[in-house]
Amino acid sequence: MSASLEVEPGAAPESVLVTTDSFESFDHMSSSLEEIKNLNAVAENDESNMENSNHVENFDDITENVSLNNEEDDFVQSKEWAAKKKHIFVLSLAGKPIYSRYGNEDKLAWLFGVMQTLVSFVQANDDAIRSIHAGDTKFVFLIKKPLILVAVSRTHESVNQLCSQLNYVFNQIASVLTLTRLNKIYEQRQNYDLRRLLAGVERLIDHLLDFSEKEPSFTLGAVQCLSLASSVRDSISSAIVGACNKIKNLVFAILLANNKLITLVRMKKYCLHPADLHLIFNLVQASESLKTAESWTPLCLPRFDASGFLYGHVSYLAEDCQACLLLLTVERDVFFALSEAKQRIVEKLRRNNCLEAINESLSAKEDTCIVAGFPELRHYLYKCKSTAQFYQPSLSPPYTKCHERLTNLYKRAHQLLHCSTRPLKLLFEKNSDQAILAWDTRGFELYVVFEPLVDTNGAINSVGRLLNWIKKREEKLFHLNAPTF
Amino acid sequence: MKTIVGKVVVLGHQGVGKTSTVIRYVENSFSQHITPTVGASFFSCKLLVEDITVKLQIWDTAGQERFKAMAPMFYRNANAALIVFDITSTVSFESMQGWVVELTRNVESPMVLCVVGNKIDLAKNREVSRDDAIQYARSIGATYHECSAMHDQGVGLVFDDIARGLVRMSGSHNDHNLKVYDTENIDNIMANSSELEATDTGKEETVNLSISSIAHGNTVKPKCC
């Protein structure tokens, strides 16, 4: 099978997102923040700067909340707890509990002890434990100094996929504290109880885990854009550029709605990694409180720069348009300048009828495969590699009621295409429930679920037609321009 | 007619109801399931004290410890502080006292202080007695209010009290950094400043800055937040 298209749908010469494949780690600590600050040679005032004052005050452990009731005691010993499909734990290298997806971590101290012992036992031989397989249960370990993250899973996800999920959890923690501060804390005191600094973050981690299990964007390492006519998207971008281009040190302006990207304007030279954007989506979705007023929020984007915070002016566009605008800067005291810029953006968008266009697209669902003229298709994911964006149609039966089954199909196919030992380029599999075709080319990845009776020729024909269909609509489905300030 | 613009910072332990109190006042609504504030939220509202318009610029800060380092950004140059605790939690009462210590240590200009005990709808679980709270508030020169953001009891009084405090302060102290304008001129100034914004995009100052730098009345430190 060969692509009969010259350029794959959704490809663009320049991408708003970083498109490197490695999702695993950010070992090299880039110092984009420093660079931006130096670039503009801002006279920093000497008042306590958040990223520079990393001293940890008050090392005393939490003494409140020790009164745990028996209910929690019972829960972690119950069958219900043991029957959970996927547990996620976070602990310090010293074995101190930090997070458990289910149940109170304090009640699980013994379990954290076992995990820490396993890790340090293998470490003693200059080796690192990656995973343990017992029956259908996988125990996956990710050691990211100064933390240990563990997944205990009975789902069919691969070790790599579980590892990537653990990575996201680590990034979420780094995102609220910065990696620098996290390291410093444990340098100063190895058995620090990190939970006192993570109050309220459990909620974000819980949400992130649910989110990453449901959303194909995490598996694909890509984001979905809100379908908009390219002229509308461009005029939104230019409204943002117009209102912000004189504001120094503004790094990213991101407009999103309903887990979809509307536009992303960036400072020249800097790109956002999809993994960072996923954390932003998670924060916005998990924080209802952002809807009530304009917020000023410190935010570390670990793939962009794990050493420090960006400051974000976060607000929803208007009562009648629930799109969320984030203006991210390295300056910590420009709230009012950004607040004004936001007003100007909203006025401009209202004048150009862009708010209406956004609302229309939000309320109109994407086409289902049948509506788009592909009755033999049930659902598909198309990812354009060069822009790290993907598109999927609306769910249609039988998956409207069992979304999880579809997600699992995709995860399995993704894993077969990406396993490190024997990655497949093309996969076609049929059983009594459905047929699935997965195809990994240089430019794109495509996963298509068919009715079970489709034959090979029919499938290949449909895929050809589908790619043409997407190509025709690429300007609407993808964010092809990469506007800068 | 005079207009006073005051910066108010809301401080207190996590979960005591800072955001709920502010939202009850500004929007007159309440949500049982509000999520914790991330960083800080900004609200503004207007009150009338006798014939003086008081504009409050309210910074509602996050109570979680990890945001503590951000607090100076908001209490610096504040004219009033609303320090909230939860009457059903001794911990929150003690934590509030920590905030007061930090404020008095770091803020030199005079400030209207207002201690607020929230959640009186849960009075049956009360851990902090009214007398203790009043006594404490007196000891730091603050007023004391009890309220329930949920049942909308006493919230209005808190903000009235702050507005009155600011009016008093504008009349008595000389070293306060309140912004005071004559209303007849403020409209002109506003118009000028927005014209400036429209044509001269190179100017990166905020409206507040551009207003204060040309307003007459009391002088203002050229700094926001």
Fill in the keyword field for this structure:
heterodimer; A: 485 residues; alpha+beta; Beta-Lactamase; 6-stranded mixed sheet; 5-stranded antiparallel sheet; 16 helices; 37% helix; globular; B: 225 residues; alpha/beta; Rossmann fold; 7-stranded mixed sheet; 7 helices; 38% helix; disordered C terminus; Vacuolar fusion protein MON1 homolog (chain A); FUZ/MON1/HPS1_longin_2 (chain A); FUZ/MON1/HPS1_longin_3 (chain A); FUZ/MON1/HPS1_longin_1 (chain A)
Description:
The complex is a heterodimer of chains A (485) and B (225). By secondary structure, chain A is of the alpha+beta class. Chain A folds into three domains: 79-214, Beta-Lactamase; 224-363, Beta-Lactamase (2-Layer Sandwich); 377-477, Beta-Lactamase (2-Layer Sandwich). Chain A has 16 helices and 16 strands. In chain A, a hairpin with a 2-residue loop joins strand 4 and strand 5. The longest helix of chain A is centred in the middle third of the chain and has 19 residues, at 159-177. Chain B is of the alpha/beta class and 225 residues long. Chain B has a single domain, classed as P-loop containing nucleotide triphosphate hydrolases (Rossmann fold, 3-Layer(aba) Sandwich), CATH 3.40.50. In chain B, strands 1, 2, 3, 4, 5, 6 and 7 form a seven-stranded mixed β-sheet that branches. In chain B, helix 6 crosses helix 7 (207-214). The longest helix of chain B has 18 residues, at 155-172. Mean pLDDT of chain B is 81; it is low at 188-225. The chains are: A alpha+beta (485), B alpha/beta (225). Strand 9 of chain A pairs antiparallel with strand 2 (40-49) of chain B. Chain B: Pfam families: Ras. Chain B: One of its GO terms (molecular function) is GTPase activity. Chain B: It comes from Asbolus verrucosus (Desert ironclad beetle). Chain B: This is Ras-related protein RABF2b.
